[in-house]
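Hey, weird one. I pasted the DUF4197 domain-containing protein sequence into the form twice and got a warning about non-standard characters only the second time. First submission, copied straight from the form history:
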Amino acid sequence: MSHCKDWNRQIDRRVSLKSRNIRTSLRTLLISLFLCACLMVSTAYGAGMSDLLKNLPGTSSTVTSQDSGTLSSGLKEALSVGTKNAVNFLSKKDGYFGNDAVKILLPDNIRKVGTLLSSLGYQKEVDAFVLSMNRAAEKAVPEAADIFAGAISSMTFEDARKILNGGNTAATQYFKKKTSSKLFDSFKPTISQSMNEVGVTKAYKDMMGRYTAAVPLGMTESLDLDTYVTNKALDGLFYKLGQEEAKIRTNPAARTTELLKTVFGK
């Protein structure tokens, strides 16, 4: 009887040991499976986050560098094309005179003089003066090309980014801010020379001489023609540049190079 009890106890111990071994094995298996699952999720998450970070601005130096270079180059090319087109258009005959949007008219303080002279039969003298001012501007405007080129070359990436994200004439406004003073200083001597060559001063004196003869006691104001024509020529230049810029931004046909298509969209 005692042998039977011992035998039963041994069997119980073996069963218990096997149960513990099975439970341990199952626990180990479950832990292993759990760790594998965690590892897979972690890897996938890490890869996803890596991809996400690559797409965030500033997180990939290579991508950012390439985008910055393309952006700056594209903007500079657009500005070069726009300024070249504007200068070429305005510097040809009737570039100013034949375009009502930029045509240089009589200064405000002598406009009444022109109206009076026209009514007295001296329209020819008035027209000759207006034409001479526009011819002087057409002759001087190529001077802008080098100044614009300097402004383009000194443009920073931050400038280019702001211009690209700005309105249809953001680059024109940038040019106006950066080059107006230099353009005026450069333009004025050229305008003065052009005015002498095309006879602006003579035309003005002829017109005012007619006025003095017709209205002996008429009051005339002093007029700085050089400054007036220079300012009006620059106004016309920036107006035309704004038109060229807007075309590149809004009209796919105006994007004449692959770089322009890349930056401004096909």
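That's the output from the first submission. The warning seems to come from a hidden character in my clipboard, not from the data itself. The CA atoms of residues 111 and 151 lie 36 Å apart.
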